[in-house]
Design brief:
heterodimer; A: Transcription Regulator spoIIAA; 5 strands; about 45% helix; B: 15 helices; 16 strands
């Protein structure tokens, strides 16, 4: 799975290119953890190219946001499509993440 | 982790009670083994010597009778031969016949003989004795007197070789000793941790209350690590207790402590409480993240060692000591290897009743500093953008004022230039205002039916002259019939204008700019392609950020506010569409505006 990384000022935006399922979820978890450690939590997940998230993907996302919460932060998502938003709503996990309409708004939230 | 110096002084080196017992046991075993060995060897040697003596007694008794018989027959030479033969074959050291005056008449070694013949008279032999290694027997020489047969057994007790049994006993003892030594080493290594803990306990009983000073070297093994963990836990509990007593001291309920701890952990800024020597007494989760440490590891550690900056240490020390009451604020990259992060570290003394200490707040201000830099760059850019048209306008107006007699043609030309600059200024200010409105969420869309055919005609007319002036071929490849969409006409016009304007701006002379149109059931798409400089993959998203100017050196001479593309994308997104980019450096770029055919569902940014 390709995961694009881009710097917006001091914020790293990671954009998984595809659905967060099975093995791809593991890869996402590893990349997110590495970026989180390096940037001390200053990162945003751009979900614009992620059409779907399965239980493994949710687990990976929860694990990362759980680690972030130990430092008083939560994972910031942006551009989540309706399917992903619905999955988060149905599983009652939406409140574990901050949601933004686009990358710039998410990046500005670090100001 | 090492044992602090003053604790090391309290301890008797690495030796311990266990080590002493081990040494004592080893000494006892060594002495016992050696004694056993010595006794066994000597007893056996004694037995061998006595056995040989008994055999020799029997032999020499028989020999004495033969010699007496020979002497009675006066066969001295036969006696001497007999002694020599028996001495050689019987394994005796020496055999001799001595007279009372010490003279020797026969000897297994002929060289020692003093009398060649038997004298007629000699004094009587003294009292005869026998001992370990020699025998003395009386010899009666008929008619002459009494002589003495002296037999010396060969070798002595000390030169006897140890038997196989002795060698075994010795070998086993030595092996047992070696094994014991090895065992001692292993036991000592294994119990070193316990010994260190025992020493630490002794130090504690002697009054050492500081858990940090009671820590032991973790290389001593799992017990040592467990002990240190217990001490860390003690530190944490003390910190909590101290917090609790502080809260209770202010008359608040003890339940507030848990709330307070939870609140501190929910903070996104690092919060550290240090004692008067800058040792960490409390650290919240964010502090642990910023200092790249585990929270347990932070407790009791020196804060300045974790930050690793002497200037910060120097600034915080007076606070912790209670000598400075004012706030200290320092901005610094704590760890330069970590993502260029900039932290603002502020501290203030706590000033408790009987001890010093300070609270230190660590904030991650990296993004703020990056934003500051962009803002400064923007101000410089905008100043430049605003000043250029103003300067041009001032120059032409002054010129007209100074020369009232300027001919009509020149006057009109100047007025046109001034008009152009005023429009440019208006556009820049308009862009800036639109961006601000979008940012503030106050920009409203005035939607209506937009005839795309008419919109495209307007665009073609607007850009025909600028394209021609730069010798760029501007093509509008459009289907014969264009649909009508629901949108804010001015905003869409602004977005497409920005894209075409940019395409003309960044395409060199002789290039080509093409506008195409596509549609499907739900959406329409407008492609603006150029044969210009192209945008690298790294910058393909950054160009949509406000005030971003490409790092490409080829655009150095081209002016721009960095507002056009972000503005275009924002207004298109307000319509529920988007702008995307496909580009290759040196070949050109294609920006695509996609818009829904129906009315936008939401105008929220």
């Amino acid at each position: 799975m390709q995961i694009k990384e881009q710097r917006h000022g001091a914020v790293t935006v990671i954009a998984p290119q595809g659905a967060l399922v099975q093995a791809d979820a593991d890869e996402f978890h590893q990349v997110a953890e590495r970026v989180m450690t390096r940037s001390m939590g200053r990162f945003v997940v751009d979900m614009s190219a992620t059409p779907y998230v399965d239980s493994a993907g949710l687990e990976a996302m929860l694990s990362v946001t759980e680690q972030l919460s130990q430092g008083g932060q939560v994972m910031k998502l942006c551009n989540a499509c309706e399917t992903v938003r619905e999955i988060l709503e149905i599983t009652d996990l939406s409140s574990y993440f901050e949601h933004y309409a686009d990358v710039n708004t998410a990046v500005r939230s670090f100001l | 982790m090492t044992t602090p110096g003053h604790i090391r002084r309290l301890l008797p080196g690495d030796e311990s009670v266990v080590a002493g017992l081990g040494l004592g046991a080893a000494a006892v075993v060594v002495i016992t083994s050696a004694t056993l060995w010595w006794v066994t060897v000597h007893a056996e040697r004694d037995a061998i010597a006595r056995g040989r003596q008994n055999t020799a007694q029997v032999l020499t008794g028989a020999l004495a009778q033969s010699v007496e018989t020979m002497l009675s027959n006066d066969e001295l030479s036969s006696v001497r031969r007999l002694l020599t033969d028996v001495g050689r074959e019987g394994g005796f050291g020496a055999l001799r016949i001595e007279l009372g005056d010490g003279g020797i008449i026969a000897d297994s070694d002929p060289a020692r003989i003093t009398h060649q013949s038997i004298p007629n008279v000699w004094p009587p032999v003294g009292e005869l004795t026998s001992g370990l290694g020699f025998l003395q027997l009386p010899l009666r020489v008929p008619g002459k007197g009494e002589a003495m047969l002296r037999v010396e057994l060969s070798g002595d007790a000390e030169t006897l070789a140890p038997s196989t049994a002795e060698a075994w006993v010795g070998g086993v003892s030595a092996g047992a000793l070696a094994a014991l030594g090895l065992l001692y080493r292993v036991v000592r290594r294994r119990t070193r941790g316990l010994a260190a803990i025992s020493d630490a306990l002794r130090a504690a009983s002697e009054g050492e209350k500081e858990p940090r000073a009671l820590e032991v070297d973790e290389r001593h093994g799992p017990q040592a690590i467990a002990w240190n963990t217990l001490l860390s836990e003690l530190l944490r509990l003390r910190a909590q207790q101290s917090m609790r007593s502080g809260v209770e001291g202010r008359g608040e309920s003890s339940g507030a402590v848990d709330d307070l701890a939870a609140a501190c952990d929910a903070l996104w800024h690092g919060l550290v409480v240090v004692d008067d020597e800058l040792r960490v007494r409390y650290a919240n989760g964010a502090a642990a993240v910023f200092l790249a440490s585990r929270r347990e590891g932070l407790l009791g550690a020196e804060l300045t060692a974790r930050i690793g900056d002497q200037e910060i240490a120097a600034a915080l020390r007076p606070l912790a000591g209670g000598n400075q009451r004012t706030r200290v604020v320092i901005e610094r990259a704590i760890d330069p290897t970590r993502d260029d992060a900039v932290f603002r570290i502020s501290g203030r003394t706590i000033g408790q009743r009987d001890s010093g200490g300070a609270v230190v707040l660590i904030e991650d201000v990296t993004q703020q500093r990056v934003a500051d830099r962009s803002r400064n760059a923007f101000v410089a850019q905008v100043t430049h953008e605003l000043r250029t048209p103003l300067t041009n306008m001032r120059l032409y107006v002054e010129s007209l004022l100074e020369k009232p007699d300027t001919d009509e043609t020149t006057r009109l030309q100047f007025m046109n230039i001034i008009n152009g600059e005023v429009r440019r200024l208006e556009r820049i200010v308009g862009d800036m205002l639109s961006v601000s409105e979008i940012e503030a969420g106050t920009l409203k869309l005035t939607t209506d039916d937009v005839r795309l055919a008419a919109l495209m005609e307007d665009l073609e007319r607007d850009f025909r002259h600028p394209a021609k002036a730069k010798n760029i071929k501007l093509k509008f490849t459009l289907p014969p019939k264009l649909p009508v969409v629901v949108a804010d006409r001015d905003k869409i016009l602004l977005a497409v204008s920005n894209l075409i304007g940019n395409a003309l701006k960044y395409t060199p002379e002789g290039g080509e700019v093409t506008v195409r149109f596509r549609e499907d059931a739900d959406r329409v798409a407008i492609d603006v392609s150029d044969t210009g400089l192209g945008i690298s993959e790294d910058e393909s998203e950054l160009v949509f950020e406000r005030f971003y100017r490409s790092k490409d050196q080829r655009i150095d001479g081209i002016s721009g506010s960095g507002l056009g593309l972000p503005l275009a994308r924002q207004v298109v997104r307000l319509h529920g569409g988007d702008i995307t980019l496909v580009s290759a450096v040196g070949k050109g770029s294609t920006f695509t505006i996609t818009l829904p055919k129906s009315a936008p569902l939401s105008i929220a940014a």
